[in-house]
Amino acid sequence: MLKQDGSLLDDFTDLRNLKNSAGEPFAPIDSDVDQKMNVLMIDGSRTITRWNQLWRQNGIEEVMIGAVFVNRTSGEAVTDSVGTATWAQKLHGGEWDLRTPLWAKDQAVIDSLSAPHLFFDAGVSETSVKDVFYSSGRSLYSGISAADGDYLYVTDSAHDRIVRIDFERSQLIRLATGEEVWTHRGVFGHTVAGYGTGAGTVNSPSGIDVDFAGNIYYAQAGEYFSVHKIRPVTAGGYTTYPSVFQQGSHDIMDLWRFSRPADVAVDQKQMVYVANTFEDEIQVFRSDGSFFKKAGIEEVLVDTAIWVYSGTDSALVDTFLTVERPGALESPRGVAVDERGVIYICDALNSRILRYRLSNTVDENVTPDE
């Protein structure tokens, strides 16, 4: 976690030298932060790891270890414990009301929740029961993006698809401030888009992002269309995700425009930023999919001469041409953009993060946030 000026933030040391639930080194390939202050990370496997900034900074005082439930039909009262086979059923089945939480200072659970911990594992049948058309345990997540709701999206490169993972309440915790909040686990929601070569289909996906309106953008290395925008449309309780951009109507869908883009980002104005990895550049598009500008390249003015023809006449004319060439970037792997349109680029081969801004629209005096 870095300040705007590139210096490290000391409050996030938990996110350095990460280890997974098995105690093995954990190397994230993508991450995102949601409105619940969850930092969500993937490492290319079938799992999602979470760390919550609020819980860590405020401290967890107690955790709910069980509760008294009352049956809505019979009025029967029973006690159940967190983690049992029937706990999730009572909490989410609709037949029981949680009446009395049972609290304890379970230090092992507190330590686990305070540190980076497993949020979702596609190989666990209990949380992937609705994934009936794919072999969940073979999923390999290559990109992650949190949405403005109780769900997130991941790209599954093993199955060439986009997946929605829903948040499901698991247990209450009480912070040192006295505030009681729910913790959540991830459960499979549904497959958003599947394999194909047309608009709105998936082929070797890599990066993903979601805008304020819920539109989903993803980059991929497969054939034909490298960047897609799809939107959720719900009717009759069923959600479909038609493509917004189409070939022939939007520049961003031009064939051969990109060379294995690794990531995509969208800002608050729905401008789209694509890390065009093999061309060492960032391409920027307006919200309507029309091309706007490139970042990370150098433009050189070349004094040259060209032949100009008019009918049977011709003449050699001196002129100047603007030629693009690679700039500071070398195979950019990630791109992000803040609320002012400042672009942050992961220049992985040079082990650095670069920042670009559009000088005629962004305050030239960009100062680090204190």
Topology diagram in text:
Layout (H helix, E strand, L loop, with lengths): L29 E4 L4 E5 L4 E6 H6 L1 E12 L5 E5 L5 H6 L3 E9 L2 H8 L2 E5 L19 E6 L4 E6 L4 E15 L4 E14 L11 E6 L5 E5 L6 E4 L2 E3 L2 E3 L22 E4 L5 E5 L4 E5 L5 E5 L1 E14 L2 E14 L7 E4 L5 E5 L4 E5 L14
Antiparallel strand pairs: 1-2, 2-3, 3-7, 4-5, 4-6, 4-10, 8-9, 9-10, 10-11, 12-13, 13-14, 15-16, 17-18, 18-19, 19-20, 21-22, 23-24, 24-25
Explain the overall architecture:
The protein has helices at residues 53-58, 87-92, 107-114, and strands at residues 30-33, 38-42, 47-52, 60-71, 77-81, 96-104, 117-121, 141-146, 151-156, 161-175, 180-193, 205-210, 216-220, 227-230, 233-235, 238-240, 263-266, 272-276, 281-285, 291-295, 297-310, 313-326, 334-337, 343-347, 352-356. With 370 residues, the protein is mainly beta. Strands 4, 5, 6, 8, 9, 10 and 11 form a 7-stranded antiparallel sheet that branches. The longest helix is centred in the N-terminal third of the chain and has 8 residues, at 107-114.
Total beta-strand segments: 25
Question: How would the global form be characterised?
Answer: elongated
Low-confidence stretches: 366-370
Helix/strand-derived category reads mainly beta
Strand content: over 45%
Oligomer: single chain
Q: How is this structure best summarized?
A:
It contains 3 helices and 25 strands. With 370 residues, the protein is mainly β. Strand 4 and strand 5 form a beta hairpin.
Provide key terms for this protein:
disordered C terminus, four-stranded antiparallel β-sheet, seven-stranded antiparallel β-sheet, 370 residues, 3 helices, single chain, mainly beta
